[in-house]
Design a protein that fits this description.
The protein is an alpha+beta fold. Helices cover about 45% and strands about 20% of the residues.
Length: about 290
């Protein structure tokens, strides 16, 4: 964690909640707080930390000061800072923020004139910034369940999205766009499907609408990953059906009821696909003898 001074606004009750996650080459922190100010300067700068910091104002109003400049951040806007320079973050209303820290060396090779990007506001409607917020939120919620290999890949995707949000060099832009934006969108598309797989009206169009892209784009995301939208959706439904069939709490539920509850509209099709995937019938998995 960066060393800072925290000063609550005078005459107001102070409340705050913070959560952080430290990964190789990346630190994430989300916070909600009443009006207050965070200041880094003086002796704190002697710690030698020159990480690059992206501060995203998720809600409420905030004012960021550094390098003799001041930027007011509206909801969803962001600004880039350096841990090696004095700075302050003043929350003027109750609100939420999200902060990413990354070693300067990682960004310098891909973002020319990095110092010129400091204290330049980043619009909240920028696609890379919106995806960055969604993707890091997913990492926060699922971090403990992600294996180390996937977690390292996720860190790289976050780094790519951050570079795209602040503007990489021309020769790196396509690499970052391909590796970061597409990976993040595929992860969010899969998360949407997992959350809505029990709905029979879930479609490639509804997934595309949730990501603000075209259905064809979503189709290409899954094709590049070696599968299709339909196969991934069916796989999620079958996996949920398998879990329910093994769950003692559902031992009295009819197999047809489970099939319909997980999103299938045809029992015969459900049985065929289930046996093709698992090599057993749903009744075999449950252990029915009759």
């Amino acid at each position: 964690m960066l060393r800072v001074d925290l000063e609550p606004a005078r005459g107001m009750a102070f409340e705050a909640q913070m959560a952080s996650m430290t990964l190789p080459g990346l630190q994430l922190m989300e916070a909600s707080a009443s009006p207050m100010s965070l200041t880094r300067g003086g002796e704190y700068l002697a710690d030698g930390n020159d990480d690059v910091i992206l501060a995203i104002n998720r809600s409420g109003s905030a004012v960021v000061s550094s390098r003799g400049q001041q930027q007011s951040l509206r909801p969803h806007e962001a600004v880039l800072l350096s841990g090696a320079e004095a700075a302050s973050f003043q929350r003027t209303t109750l609100g939420r923020s999200f902060t990413l820290r990354m070693p300067r060396a990682i960004l310098e090779s891909a973002v020319p004139g990095l110092d010129d990007r400091l204290m330049q506001p980043i619009a909240g409607d920028r696609d890379a910034l919106k995806l960055l917020g969604c993707y890091t939120g997913w990492i926060f919620s699922a971090g403990a369940s992600i294996d180390s290999h996937l977690l390292n890949l996720s860190v790289r995707h976050v780094q790519d999205l951050l570079m795209l949000a602040i503007g990489p060099s021309a020769d790196f832009a396509e690499t970052a766009r391909t590796r970061g934006l597409r990976a993040a969108r595929l992860k969010l598309a899969k998360s949407y499907i997992v959350a809505h797989s029990d709905r029979r009206d879930v479609s490639i169009a509804s997934v595309a609408a949730s990501l603000n892209v075209t259905p064809r784009y979503v189709q290409r995301l899954f094709e590049a990953a070696g599968t299709t939208f339909s196969e991934f959706l069916i796989g999620q439904r079958l996996a949920r059906a398998y879990r329910l069939l093994r769950d003692p709490n559902y031992s009295r539920a009819a197999i047809s009821t489970i099939a319909y509850d997980v999103g299938f509209g045809d029992l015969s099709y459900f049985n065929r696909r289930f046996r093709r995937l698992y090599g057993f019938t749903p009744r075999d998995v449950r252990g029915d003898k009759g």
